[in-house]
Write a structure and sequence with these properties.
The complex is a heterotrimer.
Chain A lengths: L1 H45 L8 H8 L21 H26 L6 H13 L2 H11 L6 H9 L15 H26 L3 H9 L4 H12 L1 H17 L2 H6 L11 H11 L3 H28 L2
Helix pairs in contact in A: 1-13, 2-13, 3-7, 3-10, 4-7, 5-7, 7-10, 8-9, 10-13, 12-13
Chain B lengths: L3 E10 L2 E11 L4 E5 L6 H9 L6 E6 L2 E2 L10 E4 L11 H10 L2 H4 L3 H14 L15 H13 L5 E5 L7 H18 L2 E6 L2 H7 L2 E6 L2 E6 L1 H6 L4 H6 L6 E10 L2 E6 L2 E6 L11 E7 L4 E4 L7 E10 L3 E7 L5 E7 L9 E6 L5 E4 L7 H16 L1
Parallel strand pairs in B: 3-8, 3-9, 6-7, 7-8
Antiparallel strand pairs in B: 1-2, 1-4, 4-5, 9-10, 11-12, 11-14, 12-13, 14-20, 15-19, 16-17, 16-19, 17-18
Chain C lengths: L1 H6 L2 H29 L2 H7 L11 H8 L5 H32 L5 H13 L6 H11 L5 H26 L3 H9 L3 H12 L1 H17 L2 H6 L8 H8 L7 H21 L1 H13 L3
Helix pairs in contact in C: 2-14, 4-14, 5-8, 5-11, 5-13, 6-8, 8-11, 9-10, 11-14, 11-15, 13-14
Classes of the chains: A mainly alpha, B alpha+beta, C mainly alpha.
Chain lengths: ~300, ~375, ~280
Amino acid sequence: MAQKNKAYRSIRLREFKRAYSFLLPAMILLAIFVIYPIIGTIIISFEGESSLTLDNYIAVLTEKSPSKALILTDNIGKTPPWGALVHNIVWIAIHVPVTTFLGLILAYALVHVYGRSIVKSLVFLSMVIPMVVGGLIIRFIFDAQVGVIPRLFSLIGLEGLSRTWTAYPQTALFSLIIGSIWLWLGFSLTIHSAAVDSIPKSFIEAARIDGASELQIFRHIVAPSVWPATLTVMVMTLLWDLKIFDIVYAATQGGPGGSSTVLAYVMWLYFARALDYGKAAATAVILTILTLIAASYMIRRSLRGG
Amino acid sequence: MARVELRDVVKRFGKTVAVDHVSLEINDKEFFILLGPSGCGKTTTLRLVAGLEYPDEGSILIDGEDVTYSEPKDRNVAMVFQNYALYPNMSVYDNIAFPLKIRKKQLGITDDEIRKSVTEVARLLRIEDLLNRKPSQLSGGQQQRVALARALVRRPKIWLMDEPLSNLDALLRIAMRAELKRLQKELGITTIYVTHDQAEAMSMADRIAVMNKGRVIQVGDPKEVFLEPRHVFVATFLGSPPMNIIECVIEAIDNGLLLSCPGFTKEIKGVSSDEVDGVKGKVYLGIRPEFISISKSPLPGTIKGVVYVVEPLGTENIVSVNIIGDIIVKVKVGSDINVNTGETIYLYPDWKRISIFDSDTGKLLTRITKQLREEYTEEAMV
Amino acid sequence: MKRRIMLFKPSVIISNLAAWIIAFIWLLPFIGLFMTSTRPFEEVVLKGWWSIIGDYTIKNYIEVLKNQQYDLYTGFKNSLIVALPSTVMPLIIAAMAAYAFSRFSFIMKNLLFILILVIMAIPQQTMVIPLFFLLKSMGLLDKLLGVILIHSSWGIAWITFFMKNYFSMLPRDVEEAARVDGASYATIFFKIILPISIPAIAAAAAIQFTWVWADFFFALIFLYSPENMVITQKVVAIKGQYHIDWGLLSAGSILAMIPPIIIYAALQKYYLRGMVGWVTGKG
């Protein structure tokens, strides 16, 4: 029996060595360049003058200067007084439903479309380009001098919308949000399209023979069948909106007057402009907590899937 | 020389016991078949011998050497998989050469020698023309041959085969049976072969181990397991159609036992109830359809019944006969015997071939079966 | 017959019309950018980029590539130097880890897997402060090698997740055959698993390359000398503080998006399947 145990232990040891010889390179790189920095950031965010404190968090959340405020600026009266966190929330509130829904409808409409794979490829193109370029393109299409959108509005005679959108606090954030729909629709369409393709043809055909209208088919068969994909798209879009940085940097630099700041941008300002590492870390941790709350759905689902 | 021995081997997956105290001895050059329904543990047993799984208890010996926990590569076994498991990224030649190439240093062989071995085995299996193709360009039968060639090329001590013919179409499967058996005998490689197909087992095996629910129920040569089932499971798993099982009651009478079955009774003399202690009550009477004859007129010792359905199978007919209530007995008769549905006929079982099983354990009641059979041997002699 | 009836159904006509209008709108910014980059800026300002009659020129492209003020050539070169190893290295390392996750049982397996999933969700902002000082102490700040190491490590998490899902779908018997044939796990992995996983590797490589190429945040933090900047930094720098020369900026933007678009065009099938696999776990 003792010998048996010994033999068994030696197998376990063999398996352990084997598994970790495959895992080791990944673990070393992750430990040094990912896990250590994450823990470091958390510690820095709590570092005060002498002991661990919440000062950084309090300071960051109550900050009032327009470019760095997370919640409310002292800018009351002139422009919308909201801070970066609110901008992120507005962004999510508009971008997530519009992109998700548009992608879903388009995915289903494409079933009957000639050249559907070309349409899909064209819509996906904006997902492939670097996001800073995406930001520059947003700047471009909303530019009074060369952009299409201000020109269209000047044709109708709407003065307020025929200038460079990104240069005015009333329109800067919205131009970014509209641009992000252009940038991100390809994702929603691709995921939904894969889900629509996997609905058995017989379902839809049976419904059609039963006399269901296209709208009824969409509502009662297509939308419920692709719901897991829709949920995935919503969560991923939400995560993307939380982490958004490149577009803002390239198109508006958070301006004008802090009217288009976002969490990640404020974090960067603290880090690179103010050199205030404690506040930068606190902002990063707030951003991380929000991301992890949103991602917990995906994480749990992935764990269940094996 | 290659003998395989399994000693009291147990393998669990979580709470299920896949292999339950299995002990087997497989002789040198033997074609040994593990037969049983899906999920009976036969494949797991094979994988334990291959080293793809390690047992929780017991030990496995190859030529007396304990290999229970050795790596597959240290066992000198070769395996043929159900789906052939060819390396899809390699040509047929590279597939066959793979086992030699990775042992090149160990075996001390040159590329030329590898080429020679591959060509030789390819010729043996008649796949010389396919060597440059990719597995995806081959038919099922051709893939099968490549898999066999790969398992042969390094002349392993033991050949392990996991349902290697089950993905072939019926005709090819039957042709391959004969060829595999010829190959195995010619090369004299000890072979353990897993299948759920009893016809395959009957036609190829030197010996068969019938398995169910992780246990080995019976080991014997094909004739033995067919004619002398030691368990009601073996009786009903083998044969087509399987053995008829009739629930009967056994009770002690003067100088013997009385077997009361639906529609008929039978006295078994010369056994006292002490000798079969504990079997009073329900038993199963088993008669193979092959060992029942049909008569159109009542003869002494026959059982009356009504023809329920006739299935013609070409040279034979399978006649289902309703004896009493809803009890159906199947009979295999020559196609020259003409019976019609609804006709009253009389069955005459060959009592020398019957088996009686305990209804609780399913095991053969050896003493009673023997006595019953002997009576008829005597009777016939008189 | 059936097709023809389908073609004239109103819902089908509307679907086709709507889909192609969207496709056109989605393409329009690219067309605008391209037109602006190939036309003299004065003409664009006067008539709009949508007027196709006039002069065409590649002056803007030459200017952004050659002029030391913009120097997109260096940015392009640096981006390639960063993106190629940052694609190959994590792919191999993560594929190995993914193989362990899909085939072996080992202690802390679940914990490590949760860690991978968490890393996939975490924003880059959470890492950069300590990394800045780490690179500084290693002498890798403002060095391409530092950024390569960070991108490679950062990519490991999602590629491990992605490849694990793919490996889990591969039939086991091929590997078992190789084990019985006498192959070691290393041989099995490099000679059998990797070659038959080429579709997944192509997908992961295409996406990882695109992401590294597109990265701006890490570059912004860790690279600051003009000769070490990558293309995304260089392109943004073309945009002046107050005046924007759209001719140059559009030319730069187009140059920056060429490699990912080429990869997307060449590996579209893998790319899209990879995208789906990345988020749903069904490669």
